[in-house]
Amino acid sequence: MDKKNIKLVATDLDGTFLKNDRSISAGNLEALHKLGEQGVIRVAATGRNLKKVEEVIAPDVPFDYIVFSSGAGVYQWSDKKHLFNLNITPASTKRLVRHFIQKEYNFYAFATAPQNHNLWFRRGKEECPEFNKYLSFHNAQAKAFQQNGELDEGLCQFLLIIPEDENNFEALKQEVEAQCSEIRVIRSSSPVTEGYIWLEVFHKDVSKGHGVNHICNILGIQPEQTCGIGNDYNDLDLLNFTAHSFLTENAPANIKNRFIIIPSNEKDAFAHAVQPLFK
């Protein structure tokens, strides 16, 4: 990696930049400061909504931008300024809500970004402990759907939680994406309980890679001047966009052959990836 060429570094948070207890290691924080001293743009690209980002990233942690909710929004961290949001239209959200209710799925629906920490929920016919656990973390912002489930507004995203099963995921992904051409499904491993897949539904143009590209376009940075670091399926769009891309050792085994492997998030993965920029 040519240190003179890198102008932007983007990292996932959970399982990558953050330790398992959601803390920031001294090594990673030092590396973040060093990048700033060298004029490198520092981006956190995360599946967390902005409110959830603020729970783990203190205001003085020197990121320049936050790509939140997997790319549904871009936020200038230093100036506290929203730059970009992309949501699903009311027509598509209505169609998807009706489909999920008809199928009796457990699902969540999130308000439009940047207010997408607010959400609705609907329990289906299958009991899902992971669904209930997630709800317990969001009781203050969550509302149950009315009986008919009608919504007359757009949404940022949907979330369906299923037991880990590759065939079931692929079938459900195809089923959901067939409902309307405006959306796409992004897969994520559950950060709450092992053994579950999160099936997240966004506007088709939402991705961490697109979010970082939006920042690059603003600043005049070329894709070949970027570095990306991630650990999971929902980081693949980011890592496919950045020219120099790394996966942590704690990534799922079946995607490890796609990018350079670095130590786990418990062993300063971020600092390890950007270390060549300081030599």
Give the SSE map.
Elements: E1 8-11, H1 13-17, H2 26-37, E2 41-45, H3 50-56, E3 65-68, E4 73-76, E5 81-85, H4 90-102, E6 107-110, E7 119-122, H5 129-137, E8 142-144, E9 157-163, H6 166-177, E10 183-189, E11 196-203, H7 208-219, E12 226-230, H8 236-241, E13 244-248, E14 260-262, H9 269-274
Parallel strand pairs: 1-2, 1-12, 2-3, 7-8, 12-13, 13-14
Antiparallel strand pairs: 3-4, 4-5, 6-7, 6-9, 9-11, 10-11
Pfam families: Hydrolase_3
InterPro entries: HAD-like_sf, HAD-SF_hydro_IIB, HAD_sf
GO molecular function, one term: phosphatase activity
Describe it.
Helix content is 29%, strand content 24%. It has 279 residues and is of the alpha/beta class. The strands form two sheets. An eight-stranded mixed sheet has the order 5-4-3-2-1-12-13-14. The protein starts with 7 loop residues before the first strand and ends in a 5-residue tail after the last helix. Pfam families: Hydrolase_3. InterPro entries: HAD-like_sf, HAD-SF_hydro_IIB, HAD_sf.
Provide a brief overview of the structure.
The chain is of the alpha/beta class and 279 residues long. It has helices spanning 13-17, 26-37, 50-56, 90-102, 129-137, 166-177, 208-219, 236-241, 269-274; strands spanning 8-11, 41-45, 65-68, 73-76, 81-85, 107-110, 119-122, 142-144, 157-163, 183-189, 196-203, 226-230, 244-248, 260-262.
